[in-house]
TrEMBL record:
Any matching Pfam family: Trypsin
Protein known as: Serine protease snake
Record GO cellular component, one term: extracellular space
Keywords attached to this entry: Hydrolase, Protease, Serine protease
Superkingdom of origin organism: Eukaryota
Coiled-coil intervals, chain numbering: none
Length: 120
């Protein structure tokens, strides 16, 4: 496994990892490459994707008050939230939310990468 060189477990930035395999993969309906989008940078040099849908995947904690992590890959569909709206409605300051990150969620709350709507 190859972690991003700037990954910090105590922060949200650069939370991505590559897997280096010892053998070739055969692509099929369940094994396929992903497409990483090219970011569209606005005047503020921040990611601009408002009102688009995103999918969050992971094996994160299951509830906010429990350290228990999921044994199964979790999936949730979220809407991209404009940076200005995210800063108004969250506890983060502009310094804590770098321009390389974006916010996603649902207006009614209750769905995020830890509390999800589907198990894969």
């Amino acid at each position: 496994m190859v972690a991003h060189p700037q990954f910090n477990p105590g922060a949200y930035a650069y939370d991505i990892m590559l897997l280096k395999l010892n053998m070739r993969l055969t692509f099929n309906e369940v094994v396929r490459p992903i497409c990483l989008p090219r970011w569209v940078l606005g005047n503020s040099a921040s990611i601009q994707l408002p009102e688009q849908e995103a999918t969050a995947l992971g094996w994160g904690i299951l509830t906010y008050h429990s350290p228990q992590r999921s044994c199964y890959l979790q999936e949730v569909k979220l809407s991209i939230i404009p940076r200005s709206q995210c800063l108004m409605k969250s506890r983060y300051t502009p310094d804590q939310l770098p321009s390389t990150l974006f916010c996603a969620g649902v207006p009614q709350g209750g769905k995020d990468s830890c509390q999800v709507s589907a198990v894969l």
